[in-house]
């Protein structure tokens, strides 16, 4: 029996490097003669720079250059097509578009000297009062031109008729705050020029995009820009787009004639990498007496900047998930004097939260169990495209999740469950997120004369397990053992891959690896059957299977030959590079169940128990997939209970740009999490039955927590996060 | 920390840092240089993972930046540079501290252990092995700090229950969200180290 290389809970192949400190992240790159840049950020949110006094900074010890819009070289603005989403480059003119926009860059021989000199740069502004409060400017809402958010005004059926025909209608308003990624590794650029050749060590989820953006900014040929990112300290979307600091670092490195390292401070990251924009959502959901949905009307209004229209909090769950003939989804924007929003882990979470919370409200109106309500509206079809999902075992997720959680023991009456010192609430919701539907990726498979394989692709591993899973996929297709396969990533000299984003790595990069490995395997099989000295000589290629490092006759496995023997006789390596093929969109789903404990005096909500059952097609690695599911659940705890970025309403400056005022979950906030998978292959997958998964497990959990808080207290907190003050106010 | 020990705050407040540092740093040349500024350099030696590194450093250089930017030990990470995330945790004389909140000159004569000093050759420390076995990390960026905290957590005897581990590991943030696996890792390592 051939040992399968996918599915097993293989330990991360980069594990030893990560636990010994040997893994070199961007800021750890050894670059001879590197100098240090520090950004000076705008302290006003709107206006113009009237003067910059650089004399003190320039004269400070160790300073190699002080750059402002008056002396920094003019740079071309890279295009959105290469994920440079911001529509202006700072330090190119005197205009201030938001607080925390770079206005000067100081380069010195040591970090401390650059930091000190940055404090000596005097910037004068003509400030105008900024508008930064979404609630104040809701009247300015507009429907932006369509970009990557789906239809901003989507209609199917007749919502008015559907609502009129409903037995019950839930009408709700949910709001979600500005939130930040806070990857533990702040964004880093280390730029080194050699004549016209630029090498950049970058903390990026997309080395191809970074390479393309730098080519455009400086007018360089592809072969003159190399981007390296072998290890990434988390991204969560912060490092998905290409941001100005990358281009600015390369620009000052060129001007000082030395390699330059820029590490954003934690505070600078709050205005340099985008954020999850604040939303205001209005829903009307109607259902027949039996719970079948008759209409969904969902209007989401969110903050955008003065210079960009990208929304990112888009309403896929409303359009795709539930069988409902009448749906209207409107996505609108309000321009404010804030940085642009961007992707933050599981961008569909904000709209999912409002929809899934409203369904819970509807379940109470109908007197129907919330699991049953969802089962009755399950569909095997993507309701927006009308196409069947490759596979969907969502009903099995509900069933298994309810069983593992013990849902049948729930008394649905709010406030009915208590323990010695507080209120207990049980809530549930559906997890669902699009996965893929993005450009394809290439990979090169090289099989050496020793019969081992090396696979290369210009992708990244932001912690999701790309190194490990791609090696498993390659080994499975080639029929080699894991130790016989090596997978390298993070170098723009490798075949280009799509960014590590949008749950697209498995369907995009994974599919590229599968295609290249399949072609390489077929070439080895062709060698084996053509060789008169081979035990497989004369066999039809389609009668040959691979496994455990051998090629063998499918019907007579004892007739076999090793890769090593075939390749040694061949005497030279085999190399195949796959073409990039568009990655199909999958829809990975699940059911999530949560128990909370609410302290009625302190208003403290503690998540006590979580169960998640997911359908992401075939599970390539149970260990890394489980970790992604746990990670998503923990993000959901932060999203729902503690994370909000606060902006000064008068000055437009973020007042919590740190990890002490902005509360991400800590270890003590997180209970054990029960994760399981349906683990049945999706026949439409180009990656051995697997779909993308990373973004799914954060969805659902947020609403499940909020629904559990309602079940515990009898109060709906529709304004996130559900902080202690709101619970106390509701209970008193 | 004894009363004579300078903290980063007192050193910065004094400005004439060398004077404050000298009480804890007998290797410094002369207290007569008390008027020197934080920008003045001093020759110091740091003992890291059993190896003595001699450096000429400004008084204001943190232990973290000395390790990373001068000595070249980049395993210790900078996540916030203000003591909030724990990624820079190292052991000093066996005690866990955040290396961004202390100055290099304050740590002379002490035994500093970083993530690079945990394994013995190819043999991983039980905590390292347990983190791999339990998938106690994803991106790996907080991991050096988690590992150093975990070693100390076990030695401190704070592994009596999962809740106790959670509490005593809560000074190290993990944004990928590996906490249950970190608890499992520490629990297992504690068993093996007992």
CATH class descriptor name of the largest domain in chain B:
Alpha Beta
Q: What gross morphology of chain A would you assign?
A: globular
Weakly predicted, low-confidence segments of chain A: none
Distance between the termini of chain A: 66 Å
Q: Note the quaternary state here.
A: heterodimer
Question: Regions of chain B with pLDDT < 50 over 5+ consecutive residues?
Answer: 1-34
What is the strand arrangement across the widest sheet of chain B?
Answer: 2-1-5-3-4
In round numbers, the mean pLDDT of chain A is: 97
Report Rg of chain A. 27 Å
Find the CATH superfamily of the largest domain in chain B: Beta-grasp domain
Protein structure class of chain A: alpha+beta
What is the H-and-E element order of chain B?
HHEEHEEEHHHH
Rg calc of chain B: 18 Å
Spatial order of the strands forming the largest sheet of chain A: 3-5-1-12-9-10-11
Q: Tally the helices of chain B: what do you get?
A: 7
Helicity range of chain A: 25-40%
CATH topology of the largest domain in chain B: Ubiquitin-like (UB roll)
Tell me how many strands of chain A there are: 27
Organism (chain A): Nonomuraea glycinis
Pfam family, one (chain A): MoCoBD_2
InterPro entries (chain A): Ald_Oxase/Xan_DH_a/b, Ald_Oxase/Xan_DH_a/b_sf, Ald_Oxase/xanthine_DH-like, AldOxase/xan_DH_MoCoBD1, AldOxase/xan_DH_MoCoBD2, AldOxase/xan_DH_Mopterin-bd_sf
Domain Aldehyde oxidase/xanthine dehydrogenase a/b hammerhead (chain A): 20-129
Question: Explain this structure to me?
Answer:
The complex is a heterodimer of chains A (732) and B (194). Chain A has 732 residues and is α+β, with helices and mostly antiparallel strands. In chain A, strand 25 and strand 26 (605-615) form a beta hairpin. The longest helix of chain A is centred in the last third of the chain and has 26 residues, at 505-530. The radius of gyration of chain A is 27 Å and the shape is globular. Chain B contains seven helices and five strands; from the N terminus they run ααββαβββαααα. The longest helix of chain B has 15 residues, at 179-193. The two termini of chain B are 28 Å apart. Chains A and B meet through helix 1, helix 3 and helix 15 of A and helix 3, helix 4, helix 5, helix 6 and helix 7 of B. Chain B: Pfam families: Fer2 (PF00111), Fer2_2 (PF01799). Chain B: Pathway: Alkaloid degradation; nicotine degradation. Chain B: GO terms for molecular function: 2 iron, 2 sulfur cluster binding; metal ion binding; oxidoreductase activity, acting on the aldehyde or oxo group of donors. Chain B: This is (2Fe-2S)-binding protein.
């Amino acid at each position: 029996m051939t040992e399968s290389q996918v599915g097993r809970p293989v330990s991360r192949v980069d594990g030893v490097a990560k636990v010994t400190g040997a893994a070199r992240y961007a800021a750890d790159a050894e670059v001879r003669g590197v100098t240090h840049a520090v950004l000076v950020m705008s302290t006003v949110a709107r206006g113009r720079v009237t003067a910059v006094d650089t004399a003190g900074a320039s004269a400070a010890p160790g300073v190699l250059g002080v750059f402002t819009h008056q002396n920094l070289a003019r740079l071309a603005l890279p295009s959105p097509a290469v994920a440079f989403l911001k529509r202006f480059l700072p330090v190119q003119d005197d205009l201030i578009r938001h607080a925390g926009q770079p206005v000067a860059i100081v380069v010195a021989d040591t970090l401390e000297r650059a930091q000190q000199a940055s404090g000596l740069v005097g910037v004068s502004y003509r400030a105008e009062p900024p508008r930064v409060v979404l609630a104040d400017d809701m009247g300015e809402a507009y429907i932006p031109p369509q970009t990557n958010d789906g239809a901003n005004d989507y209609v199917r059926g007749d919502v008015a008729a559907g609502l009129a025909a409903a037995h019950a209608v839930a009408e709700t308003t949910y709001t979600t705050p500005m939130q930040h990624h806070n990857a533990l590794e702040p964004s880093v650029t280390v730029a080194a020029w050699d004549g016209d050749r630029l090498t950049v060590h970058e903390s990026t989820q997309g080395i191809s995009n970074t390479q393309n953006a730098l080519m455009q900014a400086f007018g360089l040929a592809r072969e003159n820009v190399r981007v390296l990112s072998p290890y990434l300290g988390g991204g969560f979307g912060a490092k998905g787009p290409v941001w100005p600091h990358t281009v600015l670092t390369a620009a000052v490195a060129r001007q000082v004639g030395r390699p330059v390292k820029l590490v954003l401070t934690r505070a600078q990251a709050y205005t340099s990498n985008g954020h999850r924009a604040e939303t205001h959502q209005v829903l009307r959901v109607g259902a027949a007496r039996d719970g079948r949905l008759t209409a969904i009307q969902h209007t989401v209004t969110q903050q955008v900047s003065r210079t960009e229209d990208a929304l990112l909090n888009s309403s896929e769950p409303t359009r795709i998930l539930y069988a409902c003939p009448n749906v209207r989804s409107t996505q609108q924007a309000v321009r404010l004097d804030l940085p642009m929003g961007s992707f933050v882990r599981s961008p569909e979470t904000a709209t999912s939260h409002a929809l899934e919370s409203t369904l819970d409200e509807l379940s109470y109106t109908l007197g129907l169990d919330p699991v049953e309500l969802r089962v009755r509206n399950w569909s095997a079809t993507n309701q927006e495209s009308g196409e069947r999902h490759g596979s969907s075992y969502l009903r099995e997720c509900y069933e298994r999740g309810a069983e593992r959680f013990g849902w049948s023991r729930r008394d649905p009456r709010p406030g009915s469950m208590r323990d010695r010192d507080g209120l207990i609430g049980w809530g549930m919701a559906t997890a669902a997120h699009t996965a893929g539907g993005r450009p394809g990726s290439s990979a090169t498979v090289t099989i050496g004369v020793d019969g081992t394989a090396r696979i290369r692709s210009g992708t990244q591993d932001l912690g999701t397990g790309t190194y490990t899973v791609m090696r498993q996929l390659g080994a499975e297709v080639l029929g080699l053992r894991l130790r016989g396969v090596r997978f390298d990533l993070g170098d723009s000299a490798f075949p280009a891959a799509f960014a590590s984003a949008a749950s697209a790595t498995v369907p995009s990069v994974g599919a590229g690896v599968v295609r290249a490995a399949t072609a390489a395997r077929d070439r080895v099989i062709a060698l084996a059957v053509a060789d008169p000295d081979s035990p497989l000589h004369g066999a039809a290629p389609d009668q040959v299977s691979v496994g455990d490092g051998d090629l063998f006759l499918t019907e007579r496995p004892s007739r076999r030959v090793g890769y090593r023997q075939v390749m040694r006789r061949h005497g030279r390596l085999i190399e195949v590079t796959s073409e990039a093929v568009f990655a199909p969109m999958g829809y990975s789903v699940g059911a999530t169940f949560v128990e909370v404990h609410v302290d009625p005096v302190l208003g403290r909500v503690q998540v006590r128990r979580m169960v998640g059952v997911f359908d992401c097609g075939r599970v390539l690695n149970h260990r890394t997939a489980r970790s992604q599911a746990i990670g998503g659940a923990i993000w959901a705890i932060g999203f729902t209970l503690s994370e909000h970025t606060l902006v000064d309403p008068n000055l437009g400056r973020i007042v919590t740009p740190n990890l002490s005022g902005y509360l991400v979950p800590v270890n003590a906030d997180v209970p054990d999490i029960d994760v399981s998978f349906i683990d049945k292959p999706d026949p439409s997958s180009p990656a051995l039955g697997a779909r993308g998964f990373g973004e799914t497990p954060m969805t659902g959990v947020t609403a499940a927590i909020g629904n559990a808080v309602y079940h515990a207290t009898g109060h709906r907190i529709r304004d996130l996060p559900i902080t202690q003050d709101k619970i106390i106010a509701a209970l008193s | 920390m004894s009363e004579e020990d300078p903290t980063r705050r007192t050193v910065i407040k004094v400005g004439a840092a060398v004077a404050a540092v000298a009480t804890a740093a007998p290797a410094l040349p002369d207290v007569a240089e008390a008027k020197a500024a934080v920008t003045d350099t001093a020759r110091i030696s740091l003992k890291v993972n059993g190896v003595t590194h001699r450096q000429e450093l400004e008084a204001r250089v943190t232990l973290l930046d000395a390790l990373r930017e001068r000595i070249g030990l980049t395993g210790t990470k900078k996540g916030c540079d203000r003591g909030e995330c724990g990624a820079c945790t190292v052991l000093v004389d066996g005690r866990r501290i955040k290396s961004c909140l202390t100055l290099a000159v304050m740590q002379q004569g002490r035994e500093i252990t970083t993530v690079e000093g945990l394994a013995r050759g190819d043999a991983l420390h039980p905590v390292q092995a347990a983190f791999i076995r339990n998938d106690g990390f994803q991106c790996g960026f907080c991991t050096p700090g988690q590992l150093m905290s975990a070693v100390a957590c076990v030695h401190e005897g704070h592994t009596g229950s999962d809740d106790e581990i959670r509490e005593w590991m809560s000074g190290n943030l993990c944004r990928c969200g590996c906490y249950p696996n970190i608890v499992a890792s520490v629990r297992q390592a504690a068993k093996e180290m007992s």
